[in-house]
Sequence to fold (434 residues):
Amino acid sequence: MTPTTTTPFQSFQLNHLEFEQIARTLKPIDRHQLEIVNATLPVVAENAEAITTRFYQRMFVNHPDLKNIFNQTHQVTGRQPRALAAAVYAAAAHLNDMTSILPALERIAQKHRSLQIKPEQYPIVGENLLGAIKEVLGDAATDEIIDAWAGAYGVIADALIRMEEALYRDTESQPAGWNGFRNFVVDKKVQESDVITSFYLKPEDNKSIPEFIPGQYITVKMEVDGEPYTHLRQYSLSDRPGVGYYRISVKREDSPKSGIPAGVVSSYLHSQVEEGDILPITAPAGDFHLDMAQDTPVVLMSGGVGLTPLMSMLNTLVEQSSREVTFVHAAINGNVHAFKNHVQETKKQALNVRSFVIYEKPTEQDVKEHAFAKDGYITLDWMTENLPKDADFYFCGPTPFMKAVNLALKQWGVPSDKIHYEFFGSFGDIESAN
Fold:
C-alpha cells in the first residue's frame, strides 16, 4: 500500500454565520404552548430519566432497526437515557432564546452527523418521546400539555436537523471529505498497555484523507459475530492530523460488575480485528478541540483512556506550536498507562513540554522506577502548586475524574472560557458537582 496524504486543515464545524442563519429561520413555539412547557418543566425534569428510559423501550419495540444505531450497553447502564433527558430538558428550558442553546445543541448535532442520523428519524423519536411522557405522567399529561411538548420538540428537532444538514454539506464539501461510511484498512495494531490497543487506519481506496481538529473523533461501524445488530462506536483520534492515517486507541471494556455487559465492540477489536481487516468509519466530528489560534499556555489533563484526544493535541502542539504545554495523566498504575514512553520522549525532545503522572494504586515496579509524581488523585492543592493558572485547560476521562477536575478548576477561579472538556454522556453529570 502506498502512503496516503492529507488535505489542508479543516474543521468539520459550524461557524457563527451558520448559527445565526439557523437561529433566524427557526419557527418559534406558540406563546401559549411556551407557557405550558415552562410551567410543566419541573415535573418533566423530575421524571426525565423515567420518561427517556420508557422512550427507548417504546422506540426499540416499534422500530427495532434503530438498535443498529444506538449503543445497547448504554441502555443497560442508563447512560443514554440520562444523556437524552439532560439534553431535552436543557433545550426545552431555552425555547424562548434558542441562540443561547445552539452551541450546546451542536455537540449533539456533531454526534448525530457522525452516526449518520437522518431527518426522517426525528418524527419517530418525537412520537415515542411524547408517548413516553404520556405514559409516565399519566392523567397529569393532558392533551394540551402533550400538544405543547410536541411544539417544543418540533423546535428542537428543527434546530438539530438544520445543524446536521449544514454539517453534512460542509463535511462532504471539504477536500477529501465524505458522508456515510468509508472503508479503512487496519494498517497497524499496536498494544499500548494491558488494556489499550491502537489501530492505525488508512483508506482502502488509497485516496487522500481530510485533516481534523485535534480532539475530534470518528464513528466505527462493526458487524460483530453472533450479534444481531450493527454496532456504532465513537472513538477519539489519538494522533495529530497530517500523518497520512487516522489512529484510534481503544480500551478493552471488561464487565465492571454483575449485570453490566462487557464492551462488545472494544472486546471484538482487541481479540478479533487484525492488521489488514476493514473498518468502515465516518469523517471526523466533534466540538471538543484544540484552539490553535491561542498563544497561552496549555494544560492537558487526562484520566485513563481519556488521554486519547489529548495525545492528538500534544502531538499537534509539539509539531506546530511553541506554546508552553503541561501534560498530566492519571491512571490506576503503570500497567494500564498507555503512551507513557512516548510522552517521556516528547518531554525530552521538546523544551516547551512538561509532564506529570499520577497513579491511584502504583505497583511495586512503579515505585521502584519512580514512575509517577504523585499517588492517589488529582487535588486542587496539587494543581495550584504545579500547574499554571493562566492557561487553557483541556481534560477528558471517567466521570469521577471529570467532576473532580471541573470542580477544582472552578474553585481555583479559572474562567469558564478557559475550561474545555470532552464527555460522551450527560454534561449535567459533570456540572452537577459544582
User: Anything to note?
Assistant: Residues 1-10 have pLDDT under 50 and may be disordered. The chain is about 45% helix and 15% strand. The chain has three domains: 16-173, 182-281, 298-431. The radius of gyration is 22 Å.
